[in-house]
Design goal:
Layout lengths: L12 H18 L22 E7 L5 E7 L10 E8 L2 E4 L8 E7 L5 E6 L5 E7 L5 E2 L8 E3 L2 H6 L7 E4 L3 E2 L25 E3 L4 E3 L1 E4 L9 E3 L5 E3 L2 E2 L2 E4 L4 E2 L2 E4 L7 E3 L2 E2 L2 E4 L3 E2 L2 E4 L2 E3 L2 E2 L3 E3 L4 E2 L2 E4 L3 E2 L2 E2 L3 E3 L5 E4 L2 E4 L2 E3 L2 E2 L3 E3 L2 E4 L2 E4 L2 E3 L2 E2 L3 E3 L4 E2 L2 E4 L7 E4 L2 E2 L3 E2 L4 E2 L2 E4 L9 E4 L2 E2 L3 E2 L4 E2 L11 E9 L3 E2 L14 E6 L30 E2 L10 E2 L4
Parallel strand pairs: 1-7, 9-10, 10-12, 11-13, 12-16, 13-17, 14-18, 15-20, 16-21, 17-22, 18-23, 19-24, 20-25, 21-26, 22-27, 23-28, 24-29, 25-30, 26-31, 27-32, 28-33, 29-34, 30-35, 31-36, 32-37, 33-38, 34-39, 35-40, 36-41, 37-42, 38-43, 39-44, 40-45, 41-46, 42-47, 43-48, 44-49, 45-50, 46-51, 47-52, ...
Antiparallel strand pairs: 2-3, 2-5, 3-4, 5-6, 7-8, 58-59
Length: 552
């Protein structure tokens, strides 16, 4: 007969007796040695628990004991915190037991020293916690590997403030545990100030940060990094959730990189925290003199001051391939400059888009940018735009040419509803005409298919009083029946500037005779690699309207 199952705990006397009787019966029945038939294993102990966390300690610390504090579930309050004791032998921590899978490692306390906050979740395999402690048991930064200092805990993140010129890499997903009710968790302190800015490099390595919490409503320059200068760079930093509140220059990743000779970049970064402040407020950055590439925001963003944007409040250098899907709300009727991607831009904005609603109690409200002094190329808005004040546009609220520079809005469109007061347009709300010596604005190969409503000087393409003196319109289109305005044209009908615009009904295909006047290349179709070939035809959304080459 087959052997009985192996025992996982010590058998009782009765069970042993039954087994012995069974073995004797089997031996008698077969006439052979019982050892050839059955093997009894008496293992009185459970197998050792599979480790979920492995801790090593380096540095000058000579203590021998350690306590690990954890929550079985990250959402639990501090009253549910559990502790496990451990001993340190030759830099390796031997724990008495292990947290369960899915637990949140809150802190580690060496001996009787101050806690070291961790913010790591256990998973299907053991996580490795590597700590470096000085002689007093305080955490210090670990040495660099391949030129970058590893950051794997909440407390290590805060240590960057003591070495602002370093290069760092985030080695794991982190939970900053902010506003969680966990006892003792300090509020995160932004890295870098206006007197001691961050001038190094931080590589998020695609890892995420959850529950970032900063509540400093009276402070300027607030974010994960408060103030960065010179050639500081940020790559692959992803704030997944949390709340950041400040005064001026507030962003999830960065509060401010100043208007100076900064050559820094913000590349492939994102924010999912809710952001609020007064002036220069953005999802990713508040005030940016850094180049912004391939960034996005999904958190809700609000302000009571000037220059609010879904991705960036004020941007001085170029921004490209970036988008917003969070709700953007400006709350003060006396303020200006609210946009789905940027509140104020004096640079080039290329291949950017907004997917959610923008609402502003003040003036200069746009689907992409509230106030523009630069150029927009191949951008679009699909959110609804509502400006309670003047100068509201589906793409740009207010174009403000300065000196002799001409602002260009090229190959861009709006599909959201646009609702404003005076000077409201489907693409452009208004153009500054007060400064007669300043440059003009040129709108080329743009279209609007969203409903436009306003009070006075409102058109389905571009609104504004005397806008004809500053705005040239080349090969632009609006959908018939999409407006309630002063005039049935796309803009002011009489002008000394070019007025090449027309309406379409339901079908509108780029590259055909109804969208490409002789000599115009901006309506060319292509994959975006060729100059001027911004569009593609044949969409699947039922409207048969053209999309930009990079759209899905």
């Amino acid at each position: 007969p087959p052997p009985p199952p192996r025992w996982r705990s010590k058998p009782t006397g009765l069970v042993l007796a039954l087994i012995a009787a069974f073995v004797l019966f089997s031996a008698c029945r077969s006439g052979s040695n019982s050892e050839e038939i059955i093997e009894i294993i008496d293992n009185p102990n459970e197998p050792p628990a599979v480790p979920t966390v492995m801790i090593t300690v380096s540095g000058d610390y000579t203590g021998t004991t350690l306590t690990l504090n954890y929550l079985e579930k990250p959402a639990q309050a501090s009253t549910n915190t559990k502790s496990i004791s451990g001993t340190i032998t030759d830099g390796t921590v031997q724990l008495a037991s292990y947290p369960p899978k899915g637990a949140l490692i809150v802190s580690i306390v060496p001996g009787t020293e101050a806690p070291i906050y961790i913010g790591r979740l256990t998973g299907s395999s053991a996580i490795s916690l590597k700590l470096k402690l000085d002689g007093s048991g305080s955490l210090v930064l670990r040495p660099a590997s391949e030129g970058k200092v590893p950051i794997g805990t909440y407390s290590e993140f805060q240590l960057i403030s003591g070495a602002l010129d370093g290069s760092y890499i985030q080695e794991a997903n982190l939970d900053f545990m902010g506003a969680s009710g966990i006892s003792g968790i300090p509020e995160f302190v932004p890295i870098g100030t206006d007197t001691t800015p961050f001038i190094g490099n931080f590589d998020g390595d695609g890892k995420k940060i959850d529950r970032l919490y900063i509540n400093k409503s009276s402070d300027n320059n607030v974010g994960l990094f408060g103030y960065a200068d010179l050639s500081a760079t940020f790559t692959g930093v992803h704030i997944a959730s949390g709340s950041v509140t400040g005064k001026d220059n507030v962003g999830g990743l960065l509060g401010k990189s100043p208007n100076s000779t900064s050559t820094g970049t913000i590349n492939n970064c994102s924010n999912g925290a809710d952001i609020s402040g007064v002036a220069n407020v953005g999802g990713v950055a508040g005030f940016s003199n850094s180049v912004i590439l391939s960034c996005y925001n999904t958190g809700n963003v609000s302000s009571s001051g000037n220059s609010l944007g879904g991705v960036v409040g004020t941007v001085i250098k170029n921004i490209s391939d970036s988008y917003n899907s969070g709700i953007v709300v400006g709350t003060d009727s006396s303020k200006r400059g609210v946009g789905g991607v940027a509140g104020y831009s004096s640079a080039q904005m290329m291949r950017c888009y907004n997917l959610n609603n923008v609402e502003n109690a003040g003036t200069e409200t746009g689907g992409l940018v509230g106030e523009l002094l630069g150029d927009i190329i191949a951008c679009y808005n699909s959110g609804d735009i509502k400006g309670s004040g003047n100068n509201t546009g589906g793409v740009v609220g207010y174009v403000y040419p300065h000196t002799s520079v001409t602002s260009k809005i090229t190959a861009s469109y709006n599909r959201g509803e646009v609702d404003g007061a005076a000077w409201t347009g489907g693409v452009i709300g208004a153009v500054n005409v007060a400064n007669t010596s300043a440059g003009d604005a040129i709108m080329t190969a743009c279209y609007n298919s969203g409903n436009v409503t306003g009070t006075t000087y409102t058109w389905s393409l571009a609104g504004g009083n005397d806008i004809d003196r500053k705005l040239s319109v080349v090969a632009c289109y609006w959908q018939d029946g999409t407006f309630a305005a002063d005039n049935t044209e796309g803009g002011p009908p009489n002008s000394s500037k070019p007025r090449e615009y027309n309406k379409f009904t339901s079908t509108f295909t780029p590259g055909t005779t109804n969208s490409s006047p002789t000599g115009s290349v901006e309506w060319g179709t292509g994959d975006g690699s060729e100059s001027g070939k911004y569009w593609k035809a044949g969409t699947t959304d039922g409207s048969k309207l053209p999309k930009l080459s990079y759209e899905q």
